[in-house]
């Protein structure tokens, strides 16, 4: 219990997570970063996230996910977040992009670098 007008350390810790720039508003990007951190707080490696993406692909042995698969298996907001941040997948042998394919491996490794 804190006195009126005094900062609550527990609430301050929550604000540090959901509004890190302390502008008094939670942007969609801040919200999504918070939700991803909550969803992945017990995840210990990018490999675990890659396995989750692999599980939603039609063919579990491929290194990309399609936009349709993301929208079919995630909330619209989470799928939008992924689509906006995932690079197009380029087939290593031909060096050509595959239509509507997104590189979830690069995406997850980037998440774990930050």
Automatic annotation (TrEMBL):
Domain EF-hand: 6-41
Keyword field: Actin-binding, Calcium, Repeat
Domain of life: Eukaryota
A Pfam family that the UniProt record links to this protein: EFhand_Ca_insen
Keyword field contains Calcium: yes
GO terms, molecular function: actin binding; calcium ion binding
Coiled coil: none
Record flagged with keyword Repeat: yes
Name the record gives this protein: Spectrin alpha chain
């Amino acid at each position: 219990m804190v006195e009126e007008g005094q900062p609550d350390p527990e609430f301050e810790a929550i604000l540090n997570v959901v509004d890190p720039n302390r502008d008094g508003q939670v942007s969609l990007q801040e919200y999504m970063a918070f939700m991803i951190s909550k969803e992945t707080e017990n995840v210990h490696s990018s490999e675990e996230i890659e396995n989750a993406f692999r599980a939603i692909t039609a063919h579990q042995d491929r290194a990309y996910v399609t936009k349709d698969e993301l929208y079919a298996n995630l909330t619209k907001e989470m799928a939008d977040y992924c689509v906006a941040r995932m690079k197009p997948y380029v087939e290593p042998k031909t060096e050509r992009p595959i239509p509507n394919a997104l590189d979830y491996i690069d995406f997850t490794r980037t998440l774990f670098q930050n």
